[in-house]
Amino acid sequence: MCTRSSFFGAVPAFAILSIGACTDRAASERATDRPSTDLPAPTHTPVPGGGPSTAAQFPTASAHAGAALTYRIIDAPNGTFGYAILSDGELLIQQTNMPGQPGVEGCRTKADAEKLAELVIGKIRHGEMPPTVSNEELKNLGLKL
User: Is residue 69 part of a domain?
Assistant: First the structure.
C-alpha cells in the first residue's frame, strides 16, 4: 500500500490516491491531444566564471554585408522616438531607448532618431556587430543626454 503525507495532516490514503489518479489520467489525455514538441535544448555561450550566458546572440555583420539596410522611426515611451533597423525588410534591431543611457526614453526628436539610426547602419556596414554607441558618439551627433 502506498502512503502519502500532506501538510493538511492525516488524510486517508485512498483520497490522495484517487485525486492523484484523476490528475495523472487528465494529464495523459491532454498530452495525447497535441503533437509532440521535441525541441533541441537551448545552447549557451560560455562566459568567464563558468556560468551559461543568457545574452542575446547577434548575427555576424557579414550576414548583412550584401543586404539592403534601412530604418524606420518608431514611437518610444513618453513622446520620444526610437528606430528599427531592417535588413532586406526583416527586423534586425529595434531600439526604443537612448543607447547606453539609463531609463526608457528615446530620442527627443524624429531627426535625432534618424541621425542615430544612420550611425548604427554605418557601423553594421563597417562590420561592427552588435553596433554599440558611445556617449561621445551621441554628443558628436548633437544628442542631449
Answer: yes
CA nearest neighbour of 100 among 79, 77, 116, 121: 116
pTM comes to 0.59
Vertex 74 angle, CA 53 and 64, to 5°: 55
Share of the chain above pLDDT 90, in %: 48
84 domain-assigned? yes
Q: Strands 90-95 and 69-76: what pairing?
A: unpaired
How many separate domains does the chain show?
A: 1
Is residue 121 a part of any domain in this protein?
A: yes
Confirm if 74 and 82 have CB atoms less than 8 A apart.
Answer: yes
- Structural domain including 122 reads 65-140
pLDDT tens-digit profile of 26-52?
443 444 343 334 444 444 444 455 555
Phi–psi pair at 49, nearest 5 degrees:
100, -10
Q: Establish whether the linkage from the previous residue to 12 is cis, with ω within 30° of 0.
A: no
What does the pLDDT average to over 99-126?
95
Residue 29 included in any domain = no
Instruction: Tell which phi-psi region holds residue 103, choosing left (phi > 0), alpha (psi between -120 and 50) or beta.
Output: left
